[in-house]
Amino acid sequence: MPSPAAAADVPAIHALRRSLEGWMADHGIEQWPAGSLPRERVAAQVVDGQWWVVRDAAQDVVATVRVVRSDPEYWGDADAPAVYVHGLMVARRAAGEGLGRALVEWAAGVAAREGLPWVRLDHRASNPTLDALYRSWGFEPVGVSDRPGFTVVLMQRGVVQQAGEDGVA
Fold this sequence. Notes:
CATH topology of one domain: Aminopeptidase
Largest sheet: 7 strands, mixed
CATH architecture of one domain: 3-Layer(aba) Sandwich
Number of helices: 5
CATH class of one domain: Alpha Beta
Strand content: 25-35%
Strand order of the largest sheet: 1-2-3-4-5-7-6
Low-confidence stretches: 165-169
Radius of gyration: 16 Å
Distance between the termini: 23 Å
CATH superfamily of one domain: Gcn5-related N-acetyltransferase (GNAT)
Structural class: alpha+beta
């Protein structure tokens, strides 16, 4: 479904983030403050292989996800082997098509293939909409992370391990 982001995708990823920051601000949603993800940081993360993109028929980036195997910044001591999902973004023109959930399920599949027990994500405690959405996808809150000026809810879901050719998970 998604493909690895390339350096040429950095402007589109950053523009999508900025557009969603503005949309959230306009709708009173506290998640990503304007300018909270510098383009240079996106570029470094793309070089590191963390970003994945989904393109529409015109080959424009319509959705993204950033996948990492460790997240000590938010998860601290609970930074266990897992797939950590960040940067989950869907362009407003594609909202309601199931792309966000499909990307999370894809990340869970990555965790399963790698034998990792958890897929983890987070959201601001002041964002009940995301909390309800992630719960509807099977995630459960397991802690909080106090950040400067806000609190993040840490959520995880167990990964169903895929059976190998011999039928053993």
